[in-house]
């Protein structure tokens, strides 16, 4: 694969006394969406948190644009150009939507064009601009979490299960926004258990099992091969 934006080489992460990642190696191609798939507990969230510097790997290397980022702290990694939408959304409930977004902008003031794009994708955030984030619905909180990551133009976004627990209409809104982000040239590495969403957005796939990568390839290849899906994940992709 030529010119990957991100490379993981033999990454091993322990959480307390537990060995969670046993040597994770894969490349994220520049441009498009790479889906990180696998059974519950396979290590997908731990992989995203390790890339972001929230867990420190005890072995291996993580390269962004060919330069090592393992060992940097999360703020330094964000400044290198990685945005993160965590599984728990990471928003400040007591602060307003506006304050949440301002805090996520490096200069404290979002670029007007970027804010217009966010309001176009998620009109509810304009409506509730002055409201405490804690009063938003679950779907609106997820929109705010995505908006916080995309308020800065970053070359890579890590997005952890954005559709979790959300109604289909909200998932469709998120899917449109993420597709638009991709069309603007961003690279996305995303964990997603909703296979119709994974298939609709994904270009490339890395499948994890028990703290290792067990398959990488094109989404089109995985999508066309139900036997492979069952072998890798014990699941059938939904056919919509
Ligand atoms: N803070 C923690 N303390 C102890 N064990 C943890 C912690 N976080 C994760 N683990 C364990 O690490 C393993 C991998 O978890 P991880 O959340 O990375 O998996 P996942 O593939 O994202 O799964 P899921 O889809 O269920 O979130 C699991 O066995 C989990 O129990």
Automatic annotation (TrEMBL):
InterPro entries: AAA+_ATPase, ABC_transporter-like_ATP-bd, ABC_transporter-like_CS, BCAA_Transport_ATP-bd_LivF, P-loop_NTPase. Keywords: Amino-acid transport, ATP-binding, Nucleotide-binding, Transport. SUPFAM superfamilies: P-loop containing nucleoside triphosphate hydrolases. One of its GO terms (molecular function) is branched-chain amino acid transmembrane transporter activity. It comes from the Bacteria. GO terms for biological process: L-amino acid transport. Residues 6-235 form the ABC transporter domain. Belongs to the ABC transporter superfamily. PANTHER family: ABC TRANSPORTER ATP-BINDING PROTEIN (PTHR43820:SF2), HIGH-AFFINITY BRANCHED-CHAIN AMINO ACID TRANSPORT ATP-BINDING PROTEIN LIVF (PTHR43820). This is ABC transporter ATP-binding protein. It comes from Pararhodobacter marinus. The lineage of its organism: Bacteria, Pseudomonadati, Pseudomonadota, Alphaproteobacteria, Rhodobacterales.
């Amino acid at each position: 694969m030529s010119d990957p934006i991100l490379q993981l080489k033999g990454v091993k992460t322990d959480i307390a006394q537990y060995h969670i990642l046993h040597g994770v190696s894969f490349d994220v191609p520049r441009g498009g969406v790479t889906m990180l798939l696998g059974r519950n507990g396979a290590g997908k969230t731990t992989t995203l948190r390790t890339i972001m510097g929230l867990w420190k790997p005890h072995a291996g290397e993580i390269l962004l644009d060919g330069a090592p980022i393992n060992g940097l702290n999360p703020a330094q990694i964000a400044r290198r150009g990685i945005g993160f939408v965590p599984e728990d959304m990471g928003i400040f409930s007591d602060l307003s939507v506006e304050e949440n977004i301002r805090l996520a902008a490096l200069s404290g003031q979002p670029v007007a064009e970027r804010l217009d794009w966010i309001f176009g994708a998620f009109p509810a955030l304009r409506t509730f601009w002055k409201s405490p984030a804690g009063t938003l619905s679950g779907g609106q909180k997820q929109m705010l979490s995505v908006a916080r990551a995309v308020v800065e133009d970053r070359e890579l976004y890590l997005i952890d299960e954005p559709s979790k627990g959300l109604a289909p209409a909200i998932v469709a809104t998120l899917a449109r926004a993420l597709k638009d982000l991709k069309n603007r040239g961003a690279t996305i590495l995303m964990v997603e258990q909703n296979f119709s969403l994974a298939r609709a957005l994904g270009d490339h796939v890395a499948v994890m099992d028990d703290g290792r990568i067990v398959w990488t390839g094109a989404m089109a290849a995985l999508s066309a091969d139900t036997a492979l899906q069952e072998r890798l994940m014990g699941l059938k992709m939904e056919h919509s």
